[in-house]
User: What shape does this take?
Amino acid sequence: MSYGEKCQLLVIGDSMVGKTSLLYRFTNGSFDAHYLATVGLDNFTKDEIINNKKVRIKIWDTAGQEKFQSLTKGFFRNAQGIMIVFDVSNIETYDNIKYWAQSIKTHMGSEIEKIPVIIIGNKMDLKERKINKNDAEAYCTELGYPYFETSAKTGENVDNTIKYLVVQVLKKNKKNKLKSSNNDTTTNNNFKIKKHTNEPNCPC
Ligand code: GTP
Ligand code: MG
Assistant: This one.
C-alpha cells in the first residue's frame, strides 16, 4: 500500500444547511441536533484508504452566515475539491446555489477546470422536503455539477458522497501530473531533435 496522498476540500452553502453536521458525521460518525453557528473557518481531518492508498482528507468548513460578501480569492486558494450544500426542506438555500456556484467561478477563474465541484442536498431524512430530487438533479446537471443527497442526522450517503469527491480530486491530480510530465517529455524531445539536426554530417 502506498502512503502520502493529501486532499483538501472546502464546503460552502447557506447557514443552517448542515455543513458542520456533515463534516462531523464524516469524521466522528455522530450527529448533534444542537445548532452552533460556525464562525470564520474551521477544519476537519480524516484518513481514508481509497484505491489502496492512504489519503489524508482535510475539509475546510465555512460560516454560512458570512455569505457571499466574505468570499475572497484566498478563501478558495488551496481547495482541490468543493461541496456546495443546501437544505432540501428550505427553498431559499436551494435558490442560493447559483450564487455559491457563481462565486466559485468568479474567484477561481480558469482554475475551476481543475477543481471538481459537487452539490449536496442535505437533510433528506426530513418529511417536509420542499425540493424534489429529480428537479434538483436536472438543475445541477444544467449547472454542470453532480448532485447528491445526504442526511447528516442518519448518516445516509454521507461517506459515499464525500469519498466520491475525494476520488475525483485524486483522478484530477493524477491527470494534471501526467500532463505536466508529458509537457516535460515534449520539451526534451524538441531539444533532442534540434540538437540532432544541427550536427554536421547528419544522416537525415
Ligand atoms: P453555519 O455554521 O451557520 O453555516 O451552519 P451549518 O451549515 O454548519 O449547519 P449545522 O451543521 O450547524 O446544522 C444546522 C442545524 O441543522 C442543526 O440544528 C443540525 O442539527 C441540523 N441538521 C444538520 N444536518 C441535518 C440533517 O441531515 N437532518 C436534520 N434533520 N437536521 C440536520
Ligand atoms: Mg457550521
Observations:
- Residues 50 and 167 are 7 Å apart (CA to CA).
- The chain is about 40% helix and 25% strand.
- Residues 5-197 form a domain with the Rossmann fold fold (CATH 3.40.50.300).
